[in-house]
Structures are given as structure tokens and as C-alpha cells.
What does this fold into?
Amino acid sequence: MTQQSGTHGGKSSSSGVDRKTFCGICEASCGVVVTVAGDDVLKIRGDVDHPNSKGFLCPKGAAFGAVRDDPDRVLRPLQRQADGSFLPVSWDTALDDIGVRLRSLIKRHGTESVGVHLGNPNGWNYGAFMWLLGMAAALKTKHLYTASSVDINNYWVVGELLYGHNLVTPFPDIAHTKFLLVLGANPVVTHGSMMTAGRVKEQMAAIVERGGRVVVIDPRRSETAAQFEWQPMRPDGDPWLLAGMLKTILDEGLADQEALRQQTRGAASLPNLLKDVTPARVAAETGIAWADVQKLARDFAASPAASLYGRCGASLGPFSTLTKYLIDVINIATGNLDKRGGAVFGQPMLDTEAFTKLFKSNGYDRWRTRVDGIPEVLGTSPLASLPREIRTPGKGQLRALLIASGNIATTSCASGDVGAALDELELLISLDPYLTETNKRAHYILPPTLWLERDGLPIFSQMHAGVPYAQWAPATVSARGEARDDWWIIDAICKQIGLVPSPSKLVQLLGKLGVRLTPAVAVDLFMRIGPAGDWFGLRKGVSRKKLYGQTSGVQLNDAPAVGVCRRRVHHKGGLIPLDQPMMHTEMARMVARTAEDDPTFPLRLISLRELRSQNSWLHNVPKLTTGDRRPHLRIHPTDAKPLGLIDGQEVVITSHWGEIQAPVAISEEMMPGTVALPQGWGHGGGWRRAVAIGGGRYNDLTSNDAAEIDIPSGNAVLNGLRVRVSQACIEMAQAS
It folds into this structure.
């Protein structure tokens, strides 16, 4: 590994100075080399010395300099005027007025009337992440919302139920597996979610090269499915397929009984869980012949090293927690948990499990939400409930909200309803680099620093790294304009109301004495006494200072350790409790749900990922928005022909809950009966390129009804929506 010296790990070249850090856009957290001249970013490229990504970098990371230099970027605090316009004000003016408003509101309604929302980018902004959670804890509010309830709360619930901690989430050891079964994921585009695997496409290809298999199950022949074996499946068929596979494994004696005995308790309950799962129902719900389901189960169980992996597609349905539970149970029952080439436990540089346990922030169903009675997950409430929490009077009614890097008026379920509800708040504060369709409703928009302008460590990605490593890099360039680190802004707001953003009583006491720790100091102290730490010089290990000098990162191991299940499971005896009453309830609810097709809404809609998009926050970047970037509805020729559709034609997409327009792209990549549309488009506000692109807003077709979400986790249901498609001109003629 190349070690760079100096504060930024930089070395001079004729065209500028090279500084190393990691990409702060998605879970891959690829190592990057940034060439700078003064405060100008000249080029961003992959870092060949990075232990995990080894030089790979996708177009999003390479183009991020345009976000930093975007003329539409918010660079001064903005105050909304009576006419809805915004004017720049000083930081002191903004913070003082926010303080006056918050103190008045808290005096009248208590701190529980104030809420916090963490958007997706905070997963790569450890300071903001910690201080936002700390602020919610100090407020003692149940109004803590995150992007997790859109697509990943089911992971956190199953982590708590099976392993005793939300953040214990086994992931595929793809560098050594012989059979990778991919369910509703597209790693070639996403680069791995809840699986930080550098050069993931190459690693998956290597499975086949060494005689193994990669099977992708998806309603769409995605970019990943096109590279490997594709098995089409109807949307929402995930839990039925898994139930059928598990039933085959148990009925045919294919389970690894020794692994079940060594790692679990309650395995005898599994046949009863599956008692109402029939071959005919599995085939009907999945669109896959029962014989093919059986063969898939047999092949998986027979492999010497196999891993079943499901991500967004498996997390966006009405039974996503049951789906995740069955994924893990199949890995466990076939002897592939905690096994080289199977599903393994991460080896993070920062012991996030111990960190969250220390402050009692991990957990599940310790309380229920005020309005809908949804179980809390990691101390959070689901976004689906947010509008009702704003509109429902009574103690704990949400009246003020701080949103950090979240565009929930577009990316949450029933996004139109969310936007309308935000208008009803007494105070809305947004930390965001753009004037989006969400924060155009804010009373204040406060400009945060961006990746490259702040120090960073991959606090989220390091929990699932296929090659365990430690990395902490200083800021690459200085902040533009008057932007401030998110944690500084959060701390300044907390000062206005006499709080310290922390769940710790000791830290609160220190704050009253005038001592306020920074996130960097807090994390460094905890990391140094952790499994990878240097124990303050008493042993070899990592510290912030050491990592600052080795900005490509430090490899901790060649691969995650195996044989550690008893130590990583937080339940008594280190055994995984497979008998989960909640899963029996969910299975019964799923079996009772009718499978009849609705002729009024004959098609099923799924979302899809695009290589040049990450949720909604990169939609103002010229290099990522060239060509026709409107979201196109993918539809199979057999579904398009009866409707008289041609490529590029504008259509109306109608669901039970909304209606949008989009151009069509007729493609055999779709399974007949299923259509697909990218999420995150349909912008408003002041980021001009994003607004000009237009496009239908996918989430206007979705529901936030408490009966229309995944009940155990609060996850939104965004896939498998029943829709109809018609020519836009016909719809307009009928309307007139």
C-alpha cells in the first residue's frame, strides 16, 4: 500500500496536488484520488491502493466536483419570505431566529414536538449522523425519522430478532463463494448494498470462472441479470419463493442439522411456519414452476459454499421483514452462516454494535408510534406516519422538523402528501446544498459542507466490507461560501435550546460546564479502545492520526473472520432464536392475502436503479444528466402492443393512489405483466437542471396508509404496485 505524507496525504504533480480519500456517495465507499489546484477540484479518479475498491470508481464519484461547484448550490443561510421566496441572511440571524422559534414552541408543547430526519447521504457523514441521533436523544422525542424506513428497516428488525442487535447483518463472502443467489438486487449498478465489495462485477464474474454460479432473481433482466443466470419472478414473489425453497430443504432432509444444533435454537418450529405453503400457491405467486423452485433449493443446499443475498427489491414489498428473515434462515439452515464463502459477519474498524449498546440506541419495539402504533426500529419512527404525526392533534404532535440532506417530498412514500404536510409545520429547518422540492417549504435552508470539504470515515460501509479495512481521511478542499459542517450546525441549534446533541448524561453535564466534544474526538476515543484500535499506544492498531497519514486506508484482514457466530450473536448462549412468533403472524397474514389479479390495474410496477443516479441528490450534475434523462417506463412488447404504444410515447401510469406521466421504453428486459420506472425524479425548487429534466414522480403512485406498509418494520411498499398504463393523448381526451 502506498503511504502518502502530509495533512492531506498529498503529493505534487505538474497539474496539481493529489489527495486521497473515499467516495461519499454510496455504500461502495470507493477509494479516490482527488487532484486539486488551490481550492479547485480538477479531477477525481479511483485509488488503486485502496484495499477494497482497488482503483474502481463509477461515473457518480468522478463527477462530484460539479456538485461542489454548482452555481445552484446554496452557499449562505437562506430565510423564506412571506411570498415564498428566499433571501440570504447571516448565520447569527438564522440561528438566533431558529432559537427564538424553537424555545417558544418547546415552552408550549415540549421537546417531544420537535423532530429530526436523516437523509441517505448522512450514512457517509459520521459527524452529522452522530449529532442528529444525539439531538433526537437529547430532545427525548419519538420523532426521529430516517431514510431507512424507505427500504432497509427490515434488515434492522431481523438483526435484532435473530442476532440480538440491529446492526448484526451477515453479508455474502463473494470472494470465496461457489453459489451466489441474488434476490431483487442489481450490484452491477449499485456496487453492492449492505455488501461492500470492491469491483463487485469482477468478483461476481470470478465466481463463474472458478466453476460456481451466480443466479439473479428479478422481474427485470437487470444489468446484473444480463451478465449471469436470470430467473424472472413476479413482483412480491420473494417471500413465497423463499418459503418454497426452505420447505424443500426441510422436507427433503437437505438442512445442515449440525449447523442448526451449533448455531440456533427453535429450529423445530420451522415446519409449522411453512405448513400452509403449497406448491401451487408458490408457483402462482412467483410465476416460477414448482419444479424449478425445488431445483433451485437443491442446488443451493448442495453447493459447498453458498450465499443468498437480497436487497432493495426484496425490501420494498409488503412482507419485507418476513423476506429478510427467510433469507437468513436459508443461509443458516444450509450451513452457510459464518462459513467461508457463505454469509459472514463484518469486521468493522469502529465497533458500532458496542457503540450503540453503550448508549442504548439499538433495539426494537420498545415503544410504538403515537398515531399508527408502529414499532420503533433503532429508536426511529417510519416516514409513512410523518404526515399523520403532523396533522393529528394531541400531546407529542410534530410541530417542528429539522431535515438533514433529505428530499422526502420526492423520495418518501406518498410523496405528495408528505410535501403538503410539511407546509403545516410551525418550523421547518433544512440542511441541504440545494433548494429542492422539499426544502422550498423550509423556513430556513442552512448550507452544509459536502463530501471533499469535510473529514470522513466510512462508518456505515465498514460494517459490511468484504475486505476489512480502516480509513479516515481529512478534508480534501476547503468549504465553498459560508457552508459549515452539519455537526457544527446541529450543535449550534442545540446550544440555542440549552442541549448537547448526545444521549449521554455525562456529555450533557460537560456541555453545561462549557465542554463540548467534537464527533472526531468522540469517535477516535471509542475506536482506539475497540478491536482495531491502538489502545493509545499500548499496541499496534489504528487511530485517527495514523489513518490521516495513510489515506488509502489500512487493510485489517484478507477477509472477514469465520467461526465467530457465538461471539457475534448477542442472545443468551450465542444461539440464534429461529422460533419467532412475529414471523408466524406475518406468514399467516401473507397466506390470507388474496392473490387475484385486478383487471382494472393489470400491470405491476417496480422501481429500478440507474448507474448515473443516486436517489435524487445528483440530478443537477451536467455529466450525469446528458441525453434524455427523463425517467422512462420500461414495458415488455407483449404488454405494449395491445395498448398501441411505440418507443418514446408519453403514457399515463395510474395506481390506486395517484397518477403520473412518463415516456415508454419498450424492452424485452421486462417480465411480461411487469413495468419498471426509476425513482427520485419529478423535481421542483431552485435546482434548475433537475427541474428542467421533469419526469413523473414515482412515489406519487404509492401509499403511506399504515395498512399498506410492512407492518413489523414500517418499511414503505414501493414495489409490486398495481397500475394501468394508457396513452397520454387518450387520457387527456377522456378528461376533456
In short: The longest strand covers residues 659-666. The first helix runs from residue 59 to 62. The chain has four domains: 11-68, 78-151+382-550, 173-337, 596-735.
